[in-house]
Design a protein that fits this description.
Layout lengths: L1 H13 L2 H19 L4 H15 L4 H26 L8 H12 L3 H34 L4 H14 L8 H15 L2 E2 L6 E2 L13 H20 L3 H5 L12 H23 L4 H17 L10 H17 L1 H7 L5 H12 L8 H4 L1 H22 L3 H6 L5 H20 L2 H19 L5 H23 L11 H39 L1
Antiparallel strand pairs: 1-2
């Protein structure tokens, strides 16, 4: 009953005119951001962080806006996947397999609406999972000492490479780079400046938000400047939506699929670092083995759209569980949301539910509201959102750059931060050219100092004994999961890429 009482308090926080307006704005902007190929949820949230801070929003309204953007972008990425066959982000790769063939059959509107319904089911079940699981995880988290926290952070780094990352060595390099960036500033234990090169602005370390906006938003602009083209112009003439609502028979056929994959996706999302990519892949693969008796998956089967959509949206909700309860992001986008919380002087973790119940339960209530808003927005407005794909990148990218610069300067008032942001933008552009994932860099910058402090504390308590990191059964379990999590994407990623190649070969043979 405590849970229901807390949820009631959360709805009292969320049901203000300002918060409802922010949830609606976030859903709308998120869907548009997600619809544009290449942006995705992480970039969408990163681009709009400056807006939240420029408007002077408090912790709860900021989180409501940005999580609504997160949920909106998760759905929006399916628009380009289904209509153009271009995944808007990693989790959308599996939606392309059946969504794009449905569009080619003239069922684009039905596929988009079905993905909206599946997204709603997945996110709705995941939000209830968050309500029930996060407070229980908090109780377990209170058993954690410095050694266990260090192992937990190591687990997050080991598993955040992503299933589509071509090389775990690149993920490890990115994590090391992030940890190196976290070392910049005055050492909290000795008071000695590190890697500041005499620059006073660096004594406080690097600002998370400057790093995130530079790496995600500006690097996207630099990539556009390099190529000077975009699929939006070329594909505009091909967009035919057709019927907007799926028939009841299709929804009935897909309902068991949605329920099964929502639970599976939520479990995948709760694992630190697995996120929506793994949720999407596992949901599609398991459902194909379970129900694809006639070999229709990959040829426009509606269940092949419902499965990854419910799975990845459930995983998106599941990823919030370790972020709120343990302070460890479950995905790239929750790493960005963690940076927002830290910038607002709110520390996620076991004490968050006790110290800031209004923020936690207000956010959870807002997730329910945003979910219903997305369902109400997406089905009637599918036709409008598809027009977003016609916006030429030459117009869109300068707007992204302008929002980034104005927003960051509005937060800090420092021209030095703008130079740092440009530096991160160039670094993000170079790293993306070499297929180095950016999320571990953000995670390293965010968690590096906390990880270092826990390491020092654990070893100091045990008089310099390094084996204290492996002493308890809990830390040994975390280390074991970290090792498995580092190796798993090598296998899963290979399977994902094999599926995508098979699909490309099939399309090529059909075209011939």
């Amino acid at each position: 009953m405590d849970v229901l009482a807390n949820l009631g308090d959360g709805f009292a926080v969320a049901f203000t005119l300002q918060n409802l307006g922010l949830a609606l704005l976030g859903c709308f902007l998120g869907t548009i951001m997600g619809a544009l190929p290449g942006l995705g949820p992480s970039n969408g949230v990163a681009i709009l962080i400056p807006l939240a801070f420029t408007l002077g929003l408090g912790p709860t309204p900021s989180l409501i806006l940005l999580t609504s953007v997160y949920y909106g972008a998760m759905y929006g990425g399916r628009i380009s996947s289904i209509l153009l066959g271009i995944p808007g982000d990693e989790p959308a790769m599996m939606t392309v397999l059946d969504g794009h063939p449905m569009a080619k059959k003239g069922m684009a509107g039905e596929a988009l609406s079905l993905s909206g319904i599946a997204s709603f089911v997945g996110a709705f079940i995941a939000t209830w999972g968050l309500i029930l699981l996060a407070p229980q995880l908090v109780k377990i988290a209170l058993l954690f000492g410095p050694a266990e926290y260090f192992a937990l952070f190591a687990l997050a780094f080991a598993t955040l490479g992503g299933v589509s990352s071509t090389n775990q060595a690149k993920s490890a390099f990115a994590a090391m780079l992030g940890l190196g960036l976290a070392m910049i500033g005055v050492d909290t234990q000795t008071g000695v400046p590190r890697f500041t090169f005499g620059e006073v602005h660096l004594y406080d370390g690097l600002d998370f938000l400057v790093a995130i906006v530079g790496l995600f938003a500006l690097s996207e602009v630099f990539i556009f400047l390099e190529h000077r083209h975009g699929d939006a112009d070329a594909s505009a003439s091909e967009l035919k939506v057709g019927r907007l609502t799926p028939p009841m028979s299709m929804i009935k056929q897909c309902t068991p699929t949605m329920l099964r994959t929502s639970i599976l996706g939520f479990i995948a999302g709760v694992l630190p670092g697995a996120g929506a990519s793994l949720g999407s892949f596992i949901s599609y693969s398991m459902e194909k083995r379970l129900v694809d008796k006639e070999g229709t998956f990959g040829k426009g089967d509606p269940r092949g759209v419902a499965a990854p959509e419910a799975g990845n949206n459930a995983a998106a909700g599941g990823a919030l569980v370790p972020m709120l309860a343990l302070g460890v992001p479950g995905s790239g986008t929750t790493a960005v949301l963690l940076a927002v919380l830290l910038s607002l002087n709110i520390t996620p973790g076991p004490l968050l539910f006790a110290n800031n119940p209004d923020v936690v339960w207000g956010l959870i209530a807002a997730l329910f509201i945003a979910n219903f808003m997305l369902l109400a927005l997406n089905i009637p407005m599918v036709g409008i959102f598809t027009r977003v794909l016609m916006v030429p990148p030459r117009i869109l990218m300068p707007v992204v750059a302008m929002v980034s610069f104005v927003g960051i300067y509005g937060i800090s008032g420092s021209s030095f931060d703008l130079l740092v942001m440009i530096g991160f933008g160039v670094m993000g552009w170079l790293l993306r050219k070499f297929d180095v994932p950016l999320v571990p860099i953000i995670l390293g910058t965010l968690l590096g100092n906390t990880m270092e402090n826990n390491l020092r504390r654990a070893i100091t308590i045990d008089n310099g004994n390094w084996f204290t990191l492996f002493d308890s059964p809990l830390s040994l379990t975390l280390w074991a999961i970290a090792i498995i999590g580092f190796i798993m994407p090598l296998i899963v990623g290979r399977l994902v890429r094999a599926k995508m190649h098979e699909r490309g070969d099939e399309e090529g043979s059909i075209a011939d």
